[in-house]
User: Fold this.
Amino acid sequence: MSILKNIQKRKTFAIISHPDAGKTTLTEKLLLYSGAIQIAGAVKSNKIRKTAASDFLEIEKQRGISVATSVLSFDYKDAIINLLDTPGHKDFAEDTYRTLTAVDSVTLVIDSVKGVEEQTEKLMQVCRMRNTPVIVFINKLDREGKEPIELLDELEQKLNIHVRPLSWPMGMGLSFRGVYNIYKNSFAFFHSNKQQVEEEVRVFNSIDDPELHEMFGDAAEKLKHDVDLVKGVYGEFNIEKYRHGTQAPVFFGSALNNFGVKELLDTFIEIAPSPVPRETTKGFVNPDNKNFSGFVFKIHANIDPKHRDRIAFLRVCSGKFERNKFYHHVRLKRSLKFSSPATFMGKTKSIVDDAYAGDVIGLYDSSTFKIGDTLTEGEEFMFKGVPSFSPEIFRELRNTDPFKSKQLEKGINHLTDEGLAQLFTQNQGNRKVIGVVGELQFDVIKFRLLHEFGASCEFISYLSYKACWVKYENENEIESLKSLWSNNLFLDKNKNLVYIAESPYTLQRAKEKNPKAQFLFSIEHNDHTLEMDKVA
Ligand code: G4P
Assistant:
């Protein structure tokens, strides 16, 4: 098969949701349909119910190095689907944001009882930064939830996206009868059943079909009224708008009961984009470009101290990756080859000889990779669009064992390369500040520093509101920042200047005093390369 055909078959996506909306359940049901697993209950939830590092680490241990559920690849009909897993715990949201840079589309799961929740809003903001196409699955229709119209309004208002229902539910909770497919004029009958895979579907002539009315009476009247309303209010579904991330098709169902999942999957393989061109520091790279290229979006450590190796997850963006062939590590300017690249089918990991654009491969790594690193066949470009966001919580790092300062430095560098946290070093001083999204990360860092590097530390509270990356054309634009706030100026790991503001008020003042500088809440991992390009 030609490279192009191989690439077009691939659909690489992630499922996102607020915890408990049904992401794990839906993932499992998708695997059930594809035949990748045979029974429900086979996919282990990666949720951490209690927020304690020991729970997190225990789960990590149980899952080995967690790679088995990091990428799930399976075939469905003619498509090869790569489903990228995202952490269930909100304290690890940054990992999810990065994973979203490696997909071509997402499926968003909403709990019909709870509607659009906080974590969903954040995740969608990240999707919108890249115009990622979104399909919405409104889940748990077997429970008494919010009215469908109300849910659609909430989606439009809170997520700032136009929606277009492709199916419509008849009833909900105890009176839930099934879902009407607006395009195919078919009705899928709801039966509560966790193991059943087949759905009972009947095709009608139209929403006015008398048989539909004979079957459901008043409920059919209400359905007709709703469907007419939907057609009038939401306009036609437009695949181009979906692919540009401005219109989101919506499905209704119940993942737990395998209901609406087949419809979702069938539509997904029909409309979801195959790998799309990706932006680099030297312009766009097409997936069917004959030269291989890809970037690292996630690094997973083996927490077993006897095996310090890590796995770098690389998204293939163009061409074909081959085992044992030399590739160019752009940042390090080194040639590297990989003898055992791994892919993932269902829940098993296996060594692959080749991989195509759209695939994700795991590369065994001993500290050669950082998040955002690019591999090519010799070309000097880096992939863009892998951002770092301002952390939410900051603490000063203090060494508690003076004889182990080397170990601490090595450990903290190692862990921040993995993207577990962000490290900021004071511009004029030695202070080291660690920034994270959730408290749990501090416990994990402490535990791993001790167990993997023999270093011990403490985290001291540090008055802070947000980290802003400061961009400027020349030094005099940040003169007052340097004189008034020198203690708050730090460098990130790529030597970008960062201002850690103590409060919204001080941030506002700093902006007013340095009007020409830009204060950014996020930065591209490869922005320093851009800067270097500019100078050259
Ligand atoms: P998550 O990965 O998004 O965090 O959610 P997950 O799939 O783990 O689902 C969260 C809870 O919602 C689970 O119940 C799951 O069984 C339930 N659930 C998922 N889909 C549906 C649905 O269509 N209808 C109903 N009624 N419930 C659904 P749990 O009690 O927290 O866990 P478990 O003991 O069932 O595993």
In short: The domain at 387-524 is CATH 3.30.70.3280 (Alpha-Beta Plaits). The first helix runs from residue 3 to 8. The chain has three domains: 3-64+104-271, 278-376, 387-524.
